[in-house]
Write a structure and sequence with these properties.
Helix content is about 40%, strand content about 10%. It is an alpha/beta fold.
């Protein structure tokens, strides 16, 4: 077997440079592509990826290239490979108890009989993973078929690749107890039952020709999971002593991306009979030396897998030198995380300012940086002097560029006081707002966006290419807004939205209208499944040169006597879903964005808008994984929201929206936002957040999402009514709003109309029951 490669990446973007897999998946789901056609498209993309990574500098035959493709999600892949399928999905298994292709997608997306697996954020990233559900009696079974097929496929093409699998500790640490599990059960208790399955998978991969296997264990860097760091460290010691001692296996590299593993976990991994450990030296720090490293390779993750700035290559080389002091037998070059969090290549951004381009490195450029540093490690620093100098020059040019620092923006931020973050007390505001708005009990609304039809996307693309006039495009938008307003009135919703037809993305739209940002044309990054976003590039000081949303909100309000919400994206989410400058604290940047939004809210009020929603779906997402860093984050993130909204008049009702995260840990922060109404994901988790809110005594308006928009299934009236009745039972009725989990942009109109119709009918039923109870 070969030694671990001198340079590698921990993963690579999976949808394809032109989102080939996305298109194939959606064609398969729509019935226009066969299963064989989908498999062929995925196979072609895997082949292209191997060849491309080899051309970028990763060797074909030494396991440098990770085999990390997926049809949907890496956690779901591990669920399938280990047989960790919840019992409620038993009907999707074949005669041998294995998950079929359609069964795989049923786990991910649900169907009429099966609500999908819950989905939440992958550590502190904007990637969403599917949450395993396990009970104490779960029986695991190995299914290495896809893993083995990919290894054999690579071998046939002349590549020795490195299969990648979520490690056993992380798989169980991310799982939640099944609905019928006894109180106090932790899935991590299933580790002894799971490890023989991992052993079987490793053996199958070795037999197929895999020389190295990568097991990802990001749970070992987190202090925000149900299992404590000490429990996770004990589990790692147990797991990797057992797996490392297996008689027939490939060599194993265990990764700990997204931060620094706990001291106990690091010691356990160093002592385990493994061949290599990979650590994140961008978000993390060098751990202490450990005796067990003496016989291991240390993969030093000095190349950033999560942000796009070209960075200090010389500094990265120095960090590699410093890593030698840890006492490993060998130090090699790696990325801090998988590159799945980055777009494919800067080369595709032909319309970006060339100076800005010189500051950037996407996935392909990161691979090239790994190859450069690996060559420097082998041949000496002088061999890569030109590359180090070029990176340093780009760093200096970026620091001195006009717009990176704007005195007027910085002076305004520096003059802020505590009064700028404070509104009239919430109870007093509520009385004023109730009188102004005149809404019924259990008011119904949506989160903001409505389905973006193919016609609307074509019109936007034609306008962007100069093939349609601005006048013609804006008439298309006006017609769509009128249609959406009319549809909502017909369905019977109480508070309306304009549907956001003018917005390609909830962050990019604002980035296009704020100074300090740039946007890409092809910078797609997978969010979940087939869905991708194009994170904007926040490179300089932020300000708002002109109103952004006012014209469309004012037009929509003119079409209805019902209230139409103004719709903004909050400062934390704008940061979380952009590639943000790394040359100042995030809190400073958030403050600048918040001031721009504060000005927008003032203009919406002046236009007569009574309700303004400032979405913060990423509030939980950016929460640091270590507890020591969390208070500072929660302070600046909450303060930035309050800075954006506290200038609003008492009679203006401020809404916010959060989705697809575990919220218990940030309930105090949600209360601290001081929003009048908060809408929140609840459908996939079957309303578990409602009990958390009730236990915490949450005293503001709350809309627990009653329709899972990340699945094509339409919830029944009974299903929605059950969730609403639970909310009305556990929370004061005057607080409860009714809404979907998230925006409807990704859904089609037929399912949207059906789901919202059911939502309104269910609300009427629960209202009637509530009124009868009050009368009695």
């Amino acid at each position: 077997m070969t030694a671990f490669p001198t340079g590698t990446v921990l993963g690579y973007p999976r949808l394809g440079p032109n989102r080939e897999l996305k298109k194939a998946l959606e064609a398969y789901w729509s019935g226009s592509l066969s299963a064989d056609g989908l498999e062929d498209a995925a196979r072609a993309l895997r082949s292209r990826t191997r060849t491309h990574l080899s051309a970028l500098g990763l060797a074909a035959g030494d396991s440098s290239i990770p085999e990390a493709s997926s049809f949907y999600d890496q956690v779901l892949d591990a669920v399938v490979a280990t047989g960790a399928v919840p019992t409620r999905f038993e009907s999707v298994l074949d005669a041998e108890g294995r998950v079929t292709l359609d069964g795989y997608f049923t786990l991910a997306r649900g169907d009429e009989r099966h609500p999908a697996l819950e989905m939440t954020k992958w550590f502190d990233t904007n990637y969403h993973y599917l949450v395993p559900e396990l009970g104490p009696d779960h029986s695991f079974r190995a299914d290495a078929s896809r893993l083995v097929a990919h290894v054999l496929e690579a071998r046939a093409e002349g590549f020795v690749t490195r299969p990648v699998l979520v490690g056993p500790v992380t798989l169980l640490a991310l799982a939640k107890p099944a609905g019928d599990a006894p109180a106090g059960f932790q899935p991590l208790a299933l580790l002894p039952a799971l490890l023989p399955v991992y052993t079987e998978l490793l053996e199958a991969l070795r037999d197929a020709g895999a020389e190295w296997v990568q097991l990802d264990e990001p749970a070992l860097v987190s202090e925000s999971l149900d299992a404590s760091p000490a429990e996770l460290a004990d589990a790692a010691a147990y797991a990797y002593t057992a797996l490392g001692s297996a008689a027939s296996r490939p060599r194993i590299v265990v990764t700990t991306p997204y931060g620094t593993p706990s001291a106990a976990a690091w010691t356990a991994l160093a002592a385990a009979p493994l061949e290599a450990l990979a650590i994140d030296l961008v978000r993390g720090t060098l751990p202490a030396a450990a005796p067990g490293l003496a016989g291991k390779t240390l993969v030093a993750g000095v190349i950033d897998g999560r942000n796009v700035w070209r960075g200090d290559l010389a500094g990265a080389f120095d960090t590699l030198d410093a890593a030698e002091a840890l006492g490993a037998a060998r130090v090699t070059v790696g990325t801090s995380t998988s590159l799945q969090h980055l777009p494919h290549t800067v080369a595709a951004e032909t319309q970006l300012d060339r100076r800005l381009v010189s500051w950037l490195a996407f996935a392909d450029e990161r691979v090239a940086q790994v190859a450069t540093l690996a060559r420097g490690r082998e041949e000496g620093r002088a061999a890569i002097a030109d590359e180090l100098d070029a990176a340093a020059a780009a760093l200096a040019d970026r620091a001195s560029a006009e717009g990176v620092r704007v005195d007027a923006v910085r002076q305004r931020a520096a003059s802020l006081t505590a009064a700028d973050l404070t509104r009239l007390p919430a109870a007093e505001r509520a009385a004023i707002q109730d009188e102004r708005l005149g809404l019924p009990v259990l008011p119904t609304t949506t989160i903001g966006s409505f389905p973006q039809t193919p016609e609307l996307r074509v019109a936007r693309a034609q306008h962007a290419r100069g093939e349609a006039t601005t006048e013609a495009y804006e008439e298309t938008l006006r017609l769509e807004i009128a249609r959406v307003i009319g549809l909502q009135e017909e369905i019977g919703l109480d508070v309306l939205v304009h549907g956001e037809p003018e917005r390609n993305d909830m962050v990019q739209y604002f980035a296009e209208h704020l100074d300090g940002f740039a946007v890409t044309r092809n910078g797609w990054v997978q969010s979940y499944g087939s869905r991708a976003t194009r994170p904007s590039l926040l490179w300089g000081d932020v300000s708002r040169p002109a109103p952004i949303t006012v014209r469309w909100a004012e037009f929509a309000q003119s079409l209805s006597e019902k209230h139409v919400k103004g719709m903004l994206t909050g400062p934390v989410t704008i940061l979380a879903w952009s590639f943000v400058r790394d040359d100042q604290p995030l809190g400073d940047t958030a403050r600048q964005v918040a001031l721009a939004l504060r000005d927008e809210i003032a203009d919406l009020e002046a236009a007569g808008i009574a309700i303004v929603q400032v979405d913060e779906p990423a509030l939980r997402e950016l929460l640091p994984l270590t507890r020591a860093a969390q208070p500072d984050y929660l302070t600046w993130s909450v303060d930035s929201f309050r800075l954006a909204t506290a200038g609003a008049r008492p009679e203006t009702q401020i809404h916010t929206h959060l989705c697809y995260s575990e919220f218990g840990v940030v309930l105090d922060a949600i209360r601290g936002l001081d929003a009048d109404v908060t809408s929140i994901e609840a459908a996939r988790s079957r309303g578990e957040v409602i009990d958390e809110l009730a236990a915490a005594g949450f005293d503001r308006g709350i809309g627990p999402g009653a329709y899972d928009i990340h699945s094509p299934r339409v919830p029944s009236v009974d299903e929605v009514a059950e969730l609403l009745a639970h909310a009305a039972d556990r929370l004061p009725l005057r607080q409860v709003w009714v809404n979907p989990d998230c925006g409807l942009k990704t859904r089609a109109y037929p399912e949207t109309i059906a789901a919202l119709t059911n939502l309104v009918e269910a609300t009427a039923r629960v209202r009637q029951g509530a009124e009868a109870l009050v009368t009695a």
